[in-house]
Design a protein that fits this description.
- By secondary structure, the chain is of the alpha+beta class.
- It has 9 helices and 20 strands.
- The protein has a 9-stranded mixed sheet with strand order 2-3-7-8-11-16-17-18-20.
- A hairpin with a 5-residue loop joins strand 12 and strand 13.
- The longest helix has 16 residues.
- The protein is globular, with a radius of gyration of 19 Å.
- The N and C termini lie far apart (39 Å).
- The structure holds adenosine-5'-diphosphate and magnesium ion.
- Adenosine-5'-diphosphate binds next to helix 8.
Length: 337
């Protein structure tokens, strides 16, 4: 099988471009780039030369705690043993995630992990499971089956969980304390597709963020001017493979079928001030598909939405329509919802 993955260094750098850094603060920023959570992260901080290093330490420690593929992590131990006593932090993130699984009606489901593994998305050793196997996997996926009693978690036989769809959003949320303790004035933290914008630019202008074009992820279909907050993008182009029969399979799975999503959505970007919510939402709205995603936004206008479908339609929530600029020459048709 041919691996078409753009995930990794190139993808993480280019998913979203922040290009307002020079005006962020008068002094030079401290910048650190490193790989964690299977992606390249680039952290840029103004006004505190130590904050980027503190953030990097925190990210790496959290990765060790949460990584489903690191046998020593809390999540891997839970998956291997079926039960584990977790740290307060991991238990709290699982608890929050379970609430979001419920609120998003199972389109986001942290127990999708056995299917993620079966398709080979954890190793790059891709396979198309048989229909029988997919039916078994779909039966295993059910966030209601996770038991969390204080810090003790338990899973039924065969079930496994992972927090990959929200971990980067969680990093965005815990960054506030790390940045404020050293008095940082402004930060752009690219956690590999989930971007945290912190503080304010001295000139008072908004941040400007480019959103990757799935047709060519090294370029941008447009730019969003926005206040501080978190921008999370889920795109099929981030990690996918093409099977021998020419079918392309993406890394975002429909929990009800255990199969990669194939519903005409190409990318979903969510902007809000809550990173875990933004990250879970971008994944869930991708799974829901265009119509359900638009309905969800209508019922929950507490976030901004940019959704691109394979017919070239670009849906923008009404709150940001005036703040979004389509790239010159980009042929997408903007529709305000
Ligand atoms: P990325 O991690 O590439 O930024 P997402 O935030 O959309 O993208 O998360 C996708 C990851 O989450 C997948 O790689 C997979 O591990 C896991 N995942 C896939 N589908 C789902 C789903 N429906 N609910 C929860 N997690 C999912
Ligand atoms: Mg996500």
């Amino acid at each position: 099988m041919r691996n078409l993955s753009l995930h990794g260094v190139l993808c993480a750098v280019l998913i979203i471009l922040i290009f307002t850094l020079p005006s962020c603060a008068a002094s030079e920023p401290s910048v650190t780039s490193f790989t964690a959570m299977d992606t390249l992260m680039t952290l840029t901080v103004y006004g505190d030369s130590k904050a980027a290093d503190r953030l990097e330490d925190r990210v790496k420690a959290l990765d060790e705690r949460l990584s489903a593929t690191d046998a020593k992590s809390e999540i891997a131990r839970l998956n291997a043993d079926g039960t584990a006593v977790l740290s307060d932090e991991t238990a709290a993130l699982i608890s929050r995630s379970l609430s979001l699984c419920e609120a998003l009606d199972g389109a986001f489901d942290i127990t999708v992990y056995p299917a993620v593994r079966a398709w080979g998305f954890t190793t790059g050793d891709y396979t198309v499971p048989s229909d029988e196997r997919l039916a078994e996997l779909a039966d295993l996926i059910d966030f209601h089956s996770v038991s969390l009693d204080g810090n003790t978690a338990a899973l039924p036989e065969g079930a496994m969980l992972e927090l990959g769809a929200v971990a980067k959003g969680y990093l965005a949320d815990i960054s506030d304390d790390i940045l404020s303790e050293g008095g940082a004035s402004c930060a752009i933290l690219n956690f590999g597709g989930t971007i945290k914008l912190y503080g304010s630019k001295p000139d008072g202008t908004p941040f400007r963020v480019g959103v990757a074009d799935p047709a060519s992820p090294s370029s941008y279909f447009g730019y969003l001017s926005c206040p501080p907050g978190v921008i999370a993008t889920s795109g099929g182009y981030e990690r996918c493979f093409t099977a021998d029969d020419g079918t392309t399979y993406i890394h975002i799975l429909d929990p009800s079928t255990a199969r990669p999503v194939d519903n005409g959505v190409l990318s979903v970007t969510v902007f809000t001030d809550d990173g875990v919510y933004a990250d879970a939402l971008s994944t869930a709205l991708f799974v829901m598909g265009r119509d359900a995603a638009i309905s969800y936004r209508a019922a929950h206008p507490d976030f901004s939405l940019i959704l691109l479908t394979d017919d070239g339609a670009l849906y923008l929530s009404d709150d940001i329509a005036a703040d979004f600029t389509l790239s010159p020459g980009c042929g997408y048709t903007v529709r305000t919802i």
